[in-house]
Specification:
Blueprint lengths: L1 E5 L4 H13 L4 E6 L19 E5 L5 H8 L4 E4 L6 H6 L2 H20 L4 E7 L22 H20 L3 E6 L2 E2 L8 H10 L4 E4 L5 E6 H14 L5 E4 L3 E4 H12 L6 E4 L14 H6 L7 H14 L1 H4 L6 H10 L3
Parallel strand pairs: 1-2, 1-4, 2-3, 4-5, 5-6, 6-10, 7-9, 8-12
Antiparallel strand pairs: 9-11
Bound molecules: nicotinamide-adenine-dinucleotide and thymidine-5'-diphosphate.
Amino acid sequence: MKLLVTGGAGFIGSNFIRHVLETHPEDRVVNLDTLTYAGNLENVRDVEGDPRYRFVHGDVGDPRLVREAMGGVDAVVHLAAESHVDRANLAAGEFLRTNVGGTGTLLDAARELRIARFVQVSTDEVYGSMAAGAARESDPLNPSNPYSASKAAADLLARAYWITHRLPVVVTRGANTFGPYQYPEKVIPLFVTNALENRPLPLYGDGRQVRDWLYVLDHCAAIDLVLRHGGDGEIYNIGGGTGIENRELTRRILRLLGKPESLIQPVTDRPGHDRRYALDASKLRALGWAPRHSFEQALETTVGWYRTHEAWWRPLRSGLFTQYYDRQYTNR
Ligand code: NAD
Ligand code: TYD
């Protein structure tokens, strides 16, 4: 199979490309990525010499380039996005342009080129905060921040291309993902790298918000399964099944690093902060997927990876990142 992967220089995309090339030797991958602050060719350095892999530098909102990159592919796995809630809360323009507009451009090209499978990588955040229970695919979308609203728009748009145009779309709604190569602005890599530098860990509000944590390799395996065996027009939740409070997550990270809890710094809560995410992933499990990594072990592996890959994250925590960090966290 020949795949177009968008956002393949990002966190999940780079892990996904590695997963595909390792598990499907006959596959070929085109990686279309515009290399925003979160895109990093270091994430795919190990595959760049592979003859089955090709990188195309460009924007998913560029119709001409998108058609070129999509030429001759069997399937599109669309991961490119602006992905950070706190940045969307600072300014939403890029989120609308890439997450909504870029998705529309890709869908039009996929329709025109009669692509046989379009995987829209969506998120559990489209359901909004779940006071109790676990979200099912048939639940209404109820996003509460500009990031999740932009992802909900893209999710609905992709489904609309199935309903209206019979483009064979399949949607995945993955939970909070963690693992190697995650840009150190999301909570786990941010807290691990802050702790490694003995800097405070800014815990929002009372720290009792719950996320349903999913290891990146389990997320990639799920996307791959849905790509090959998901039903046209179907939606699949990808939940890790480990719901823990942020304050407990923070303590575990510090324990794994042998750092004191005095590094935890409670700060003003995120506006519109979703209290709890939880997913019912039974539909995907029925298709044959189950997470293969326990949360405890995956967290330990991830913390260990950041500990031994300072050369990867150190450059990312300078320059523009410092500006973002000061704006986001100073006087909070
Ligand atoms: P990321 O921010 O690490 O990577 C995003 C990638 O997209 C980057 O390489 C970036 O350069 C690229 N990109 C951004 N705008 C682009 C554009 N206009 N054209 C081409 N490329 C562009 O994000 P991630 O965490 O790997 O998330 C990947 C996808 O998975 C996103 O769609 C996100 O919404 C979804 N998702 C993420 C999580 C999570 O916890 N990280 C959970 C569920 C779903
Ligand atoms: P994050 O990794 O940004 O993912 P999302 O907002 O998409 O769930 O945040 C995960 C949780 O951690 C969320 O409840 C917000 C919280 N958080 C903090 O307490 N402090 C921080 O500095 C960050 C980035 C997140």
